[in-house]
Specification:
about 200 residues, mainly beta, 13-stranded antiparallel β-sheet, 13 strands
Length: about 200
């Protein structure tokens, strides 16, 4: 919402396999910016969300970061047996246009200091120092397309994906991936630590 104020929103989840105690002590947004805090009361971790948005330009830019060195996200371990964390997550949408049944979105997201542990993925914690994704997406009644001008970066490696899902008549799927030329040292340095 363009203008919102939340205070002391407490969410408690109890089941046979899950005990969670989450608190949003404050969240405020006005016509230009938003700011809030999210606390996991079961283990004392806190996250801060700050950002700006413009309804007129149809854009937003939000940053989420941890207040302490232990950056594990709540709920993922009991639900998916995964431990996930990050130093900073940034989400943005720079543009949104709708014309003649075609919705076009462009923006980016990036993460610094990502960690992931799941026993079926790797024996050790996977670490990604820096990753980002600049996207150009088109959605119509019958198709979804990630444009080939979209760019993903994994540490020093640059990947240019394109995806098209066509639902007109017989479903058709198209996937393209192009990786920019990268030196051997940069390639191996870009692979997530702990995965191999």
């Amino acid at each position: 919402p363009q203008e919102a104020h939340l205070s002391a929103l407490h969410l408690e989840i109890r089941s046979d396999t899950l005990n969670a105690d989450l608190l949003i002590p404050h969240f405020d947004s006005d016509k230009r910016e938003l700011k809030g805090t999210f606390n996991d009361l079961s283990d004392g971790r806190s996250w801060v969300m700050e950002g700006a948005f413009s309804q007129r330009r149809r854009s937003f830019d939000v940053t989420i970061h941890s207040k302490q060195s232990d950056k594990r996200l709540p709920l993922l371990q009991p639900l998916f047996n995964a431990v996930v964390g990050f130093d900073t997550l940034k989400l943005s949408m720079e543009g949104m246009e709708y014309s003649a049944g075609d919705l076009r979105l462009s923006g980016s997201f990036s993460a610094k200091g990502v960690t992931l542990f799941h026993p079926k993925v790797a024996d050790d914690t996977i670490r990604i120092d820096s990753s980002s994704f600049d996207y150009h997406l088109s959605v119509t009644e019958r198709a979804l397309q990630l444009d080939s001008t979209s760019v993903a970066r994994l540490n020093r490696m640059v990947i240019r994906p394109s995806v098209r899902i066509d639902k007109s008549g017989k479903d058709a799927y198209s996937l393209g991936v192009r990786i920019d030329t990268v030196g051997a040292d940069d390639f191996f340095a870009s692979l997530p630590q702990g995965m191999f």
